[in-house]
Each structure stands twice: as structure tokens, then as C-alpha cells.
Amino acid sequence: MSQQTPGSTAMQAPQGDAFENLSQENRRFAPSAEFAANAVVTAGEYAEADADRPAFWAKQARELLSWSKDFTQTLDWSNPPFAKWFVGGEINAAYNALDRHVEAGHGDRVAIYFEGEPGDTRTYTYAQLTEEVKKAANAFESLGVTKGDRVAVYLPMIPEAVITLLACARIGAIHSVVFGGFSAEALRSRIDDAEAKLVVTADGTYRRGKPSALKPAVDDALAHDGHTVQNVVVVKRNGQDVDWHEGRDHWWADTVGAASAEHTAVGHDAEHPLFILYTSGTTGKPKGILHTTGGYLTQGAYTHKAVFDLHPETDVYWCTADVGWITGHSYVAYAPLINGATQVMYEGTPDSPHQGRWWEIVEKYKVSILYTAPTAIRTFMKWGKEIPAKSDLSSIRVLGSVGEPINPEAWMWYREVIGGNGGRKQTPAPIVDTWWQTETGAQMIAPLPGVTATKPGSAQVPLPGIAVDVVDELGETVPNGHGGFLVIREPWPAMLRGIWGDPERFKETYWSRFESMYFAGDGAKKDEDGDIWLLGRVDDVMNISGHRLSTAEIESALVSHPAVAEAAVVGAADETTGQAVVAFVILRGDAVDTGDDIVQELRNHVSKEIGPIAKPKTILVVPELPKTRSGKIMRRLLKDVAEGREVGDATTLADNTVMAQIARSLKK
Ligand code: WTA
């Protein structure tokens, strides 16, 4: 386990050379006069928030949300790191996302344009979506779900996912979404940790033109005694055969479909838990990140409006994230609907049935705001700009990026090919690179598209009301032109309220590294202008295609295979996916090295234990692993090997012949 002490191998200071290249970046793209003139927020927000941070957030909370009972205190920080925002206030998230827009006369506005992978489509107006959520709320209540109960959600990107989340929020049940790409085993551990009472799933979904299954994983996850699940609601999506557990399983159409469309939303306490979302940390066990209601909704709504310059009457917004990740929670299920926006939801992969699918969707729905991840952008770069050029992308006016650092080349390509409609547009759309985490709940660092002159590759500035800093090993602010660790100095409304069932781990993970500061786990640099550049994780967390995975989690999956004695995993730089999983394994004495066969078997084993996203790209069978005298694996040296570099300083190894042994075994 990583004790995060200065200089430990678990947390290396960010490397300088990455920044040397970045610091030469001097291109700037100021907002056009027209964009700035019509922008929903102005530069004045920074000064206003600086003058009185809580007052700024109190104003946003009252302007952007409808409270059934006003709050009496904006922030209670008397017991750090346990914050309470909007104390005494009562609010219903679903009412804010739905009913109030209908009451305000916007019932006919489209809330969701759904595009299924096979090409089927559905449109929900705000009035229709409100009705569906009311029915689902009634159905879940009829299955015995009450306020505070946990509901596990294992669904593809279909409207029922949003409906389920909002129905839970409406009745005060706490949802825990598990990404559909996670395995039965990963699902089981999350259901058990949260002690879920209900599971909502689907028979399956479509992946690259083929039906794929989800329900069997739920059946497997519940195939042990002593679990807490009483009912499973199943959406029929692709009509494949499913095993059926009479009494426990219910078709969505029979329960939700038959439920009453009358349901009155009541306010819940501002600090009532809204959801748990599991994410990878530095240990093998995923952490259940807990978010509550009032602060989460406030910061989500504010950032969605300000960072994307949202004009809800005219914009069509599309965030490509899956609802299984935090981006799909904050910027698909909650903020866009709270803000009354019209959004696109797409079920499938970008290359189905062909590599131009996304751009056809943009043209078809006239998407004006697109929010996606650098991995996707780099993939499109590889496929070539002729593909997006076949579609009319002139509707796009704001582009967002999230999940991993975006390299300047990808940034420029995104701007010119997508934001510039392949060169056909005189003024390309501004790009907002947004830094945040599952833990922060909402965006924290990003330019404002009508205010900031953007810089390729940099997330640049903390948002109004957010106190981000870059500090050295001792927690001192670094001067411009220097690198260090990204921290957050003041509490923020959407901050996590803890780790489900483990308050000590919450303190230790985020608040113990630096006194009175939240430590994000990221390395960062400030350039000469004071703009922030994110340099990737400094702990044992990897970022594969914008998805968080922990080295320890994959290592423990590998050693659970009978042929493996020891394993070490590193994230190696990868041109498309940002990082790729590279595993070094020592086989047990009695295991036979069958070359490719054992490698394939181990890759499948990881897929079964965690999910296909965790499958190592490369597995290297080695005779030894580099360890310090205290037995800690020196991943830094393995990373050098995985990235094809000369191996760095190995003087602290217990056995200094190990690296040579590894090199010899890899040459073979
Ligand atoms: C990384 C995703 C650079 C970072 C919203 C963070 C980024 C982790 C950016 C959180 C960005 C996210 N630039 N790095 N714009 N956005 N990251 O919890 O390392 O899935 O700590 O939340 O992704 O990943 P998570």
C-alpha cells in the first residue's frame, strides 16, 4: 500500500520534460466579439466570487434551483473535512430537473433525443420525461424502496438510465450506478458494499452492431446467499432470452409501465445523500464516493451553464459519456435537465455502423455543444479528417474536453476539424478543457468560453468560486513556471461528502497529505501566465481512455489466478488511449509458461474479474520484480521498461541485478 510520504515511489513529483514542451505553447484564441457579447456569464463573476465565495454560491443556489425550503446557512465547515452546504434547505432533484420546467410552460421542449445503436430513435419532451419518472418513482416505491435505500443501476445508455436515476432522487433513494462494462464480480462487490435493495438492469444492449447481454451478470452477482437485493427490474432492450427468477425479477414494462403517473415530489434535506459512485483509488478496493443533494446540484447547474455557455432555448447539447461514470451523472442525468436543456443521448460506439456515426448524429440533431474525451478525439484523428468532413458540423459552437490531459495536437485538430467544420467555418468554436474528478462532483478548472483566451492543452483557470492551487512537497504554493501537486484549498459545493461506510479512509485519502487541503492525486504545473496544465496522476491510479483504474486492483485480479505468483501493473504512455495497462507477472513454480496462451488466459481472467476495460494491453512474464529493501515494487522502473526508455536510477533496489534479469527475459 502506498504511504504517501514525500519521495516515496508511490507518489512521484511530476516529470519536468513533459512540461518543457508544453511551456512553449504560446498560441491563444480569444473569444470572438460576437460570442463574448452573447455569453451567459462575464468576467465579473471571478471578482464577485472572490469577494465572498459562500455568498456567490448561495446566489447560484437560489437562482438556478427551486427550493421547497430555503436554507439558513450557506456553509458549515466547523468539522472539516466534513462539509455541509445550504444547511436547513430542502430540495427535490427530480422536481428541479423536470416538473418545474413543465410548470413554467416548457413541457413541450425536447429533453432527450435518444439514438439507439441500431438506428431506432425516441424523443422525450420535458412533459413526457416527467411522466416517466413519476411512474418509475411509484413503481420503485411499490417494490418497497423508501428514502435512504440503495438502488444499484446496471444499464446501457438508454433513456431508462436517466429515468431511473431521477426516480431514485425523487423518492430519496440513493442510486449506485455500475458501468455496464464492469464484470459480474465487480457488480457483486458494489451491490454488497452498498447493500442495495433493488437492481435496475436491462436484458442487454447493442455493441458494434451485435446484441450484448447485461442480465446474466446480474444473475451471477446475486448467485450467493446473504445479499440484500429483493427485486430486479429489467428493461427489455434487445429482446434476447434471459433467465427469470420468479418473484424477484420484474419487466420494466410491467412495473413502471403499469404504474400511476401521479407522484408528488417532496423536498429532501440539502445534505440528503443523492448517490454513491464507485471509483478506483490506490488500493484494490474501489471507493464508494458519496454525493449529497443541494451542493451537487448547485455546482453542476452553474458550471454547465457557465462553462458551456448554455442557452437552453436554442442549444442542443451532447455529452458522449456513459451514465456509468461521473460525467454521465453530472453532465447527462442532472445538470442539463436542471438547466432545462435539450440533449442527445447515444447508445453505441462511434464506429457503428461506420466511423462517421457521431458526425451524422451532430448533423441530424444540429448539436451545438459537444462534450467528449481526448481519447475519442485522438481516435478520430487516426481515422482521418475526411470522415467528419462528410457531415455538416456548422451547428457546433462550443466544444468540451474531459477525463485526461488533452495534448495540443489533439486540441488543434478538435478545434479545426470539428469546431471549424473542417475549415469551412471562419471562426472555429471555442474549446473548454475541463478538469475535475468523481470526487469533485462537478467541473473545477476550465476556461469560460466567452471570457478566457484559450490555450491548446491547458485547462487554465479555476472556475469562479473554486480555490485550486499547485503546491510543492511541503504544501507551499509554487511560483509561476513551476510544477507540483494539485490541491483544493477551500470547500466547494459539489465536493464528495465521504466514502460510503468509511469516514477514516475519506480523511486519510484526501486530507492527510497536506494540512487543510484536499489532495487531488494529480500533478500540475503553472505556466508563466499562471495557467494550469494537468500532468496526470502522481499516485497508483491509471487513466485508460479517460477511465480510472488502479494498479492495485488489476494486480489483485492477476494474483487471484492460480498460475500467478506476483504481479505489478503500470500505466504506460499510449498514443490513443493516453495510458495502456502493462502487467509484469511472475508465474508460480509449478505453472508452465505456455507463452501466448497463458498471456491470453490472464487477460481474459482480468476481464472476468473487473471488466473488459481493465484488460492489460501487454502482459510480460518475468523472473523477478524490482523491489526496494522494504519490499515496495518500484513501478517507476517498470514504467521505463514498458515505455521503452533506458531504466532510471535503480540504486535503492534490494537486488540490483533484477532489472538486468528482466531485460534478458524480455529479449528472449
Ligand atoms: C483526470 C472524470 C487532465 C485526472 C471527470 C483526474 C483530467 C481524473 C482532466 C479523474 C482534464 C480529468 N485534464 N486530466 N481535463 N479531467 N482528468 O474520477 O487525473 O473518472 O484526477 O473523473 O481524471 O477521473 P474521474
TrEMBL record:
One of its GO terms (molecular function) is metal ion binding. Residues 104-500 form the AMP-dependent synthetase/ligase domain. CoA binds at R207, R208, G209, K210, T327, S545. It is an enzyme of class 6 (ligase). The keyword Cytoplasm does not apply. The keyword Transport does not apply. Residues 46-97 form the Acetyl-coenzyme A synthetase N-terminal domain. It comes from the Bacteria. Acetylated. Deacetylation by the SIR2-homolog deacetylase activates the enzyme. ATP binds at G403, E404, P405, D433, T434, W435, W436, Q437, T438, D522, R537, R548. It catalyses: acetate + ATP + CoA = acetyl-CoA + AMP + diphosphate. Mg(2+) binds at V559, H561, V564. Catalyzes the conversion of acetate into acetyl-CoA (AcCoA), an essential intermediate at the junction of anabolic and catabolic pathways. AcsA undergoes a two-step reaction. In the first half reaction, AcsA combines acetate with ATP to form acetyl-adenylate (AcAMP) intermediate. In the second half reaction, it can then transfer the acetyl group from AcAMP to the sulfhydryl group of CoA, forming the product AcCoA. Belongs to the ATP-dependent AMP-binding enzyme family. This is Acetyl-coenzyme A synthetase. It comes from Arthrobacter oryzae.
